[in-house]
Amino acid sequence: ATPASVKEVSATGSGDTFLAALLQQSIAGADPVTMLSYAAACATANAASSGIGDFKLPLEERFLPRITRL
User: Fold this and answer.
1) 16-70, pLDDT tens digit by residue?
2) What distance in Å separates the CA atoms of residue 4 and residue 51, rounded to the nearest whole number?
3) Which is nearest to 49 in space by CA: 2, 4, 1, 8?
4) 3-class secondary structure for the chain?
5) In this predicted model, what pLDDT tens digit does every residue of 58-67 receive, in sequence order?
6) What is the rounded CA–CA span in Å between residue 5 and residue 28?
7) pTM for this structure?
8) In this structure, are residues 53 and 13 in contact, taking their beta carbons and an 8 Å threshold?
9) What is the pLDDT of residue 11?
């Protein structure tokens, strides 16, 4: 999955956000493509927001359609 291009506000915590979202989707039983796409969308939402992992849900859903699936 390739993340969407956004205006970066703060990338701090984006890797942690990616991992947390990946694990959450894995526990939920998602397939690998969905797991990676959702994690990339969450990391993108984090980078586009101030703070660390402090974005309002469902902000990641705004980015999900813009994630390029391989």
Assistant:
1) 999 999 999 999 999 998 999 889 888 888 888 887 777 776 767 777 777 776 5
2) 19
3) 8
4) CECCCCCCCCCCCHHHHHHHHHHHHHHCCCCHHHHHHHHHHHHHHHHCCCCCCCCCCCHHHHHHHHCECC
5) 767 777 777 7
6) 27
7) 0.79
8) yes
9) 87
Question: Whole-angstrom Cα distance, residue 26 to residue 17?
Answer: 14
Directed axis angle between helix 14-27 and helix 32-47, to 10°?
150
Question: What is d(CA 49, CA 8) in angstroms, rounded to the nearest whole number?
Answer: 8
Task: Please give the single-letter amino acid code of residue 68.
Answer: T
Give the number of other Cβ atoms within 10 Å of residue 62's Cβ.
Answer: 15
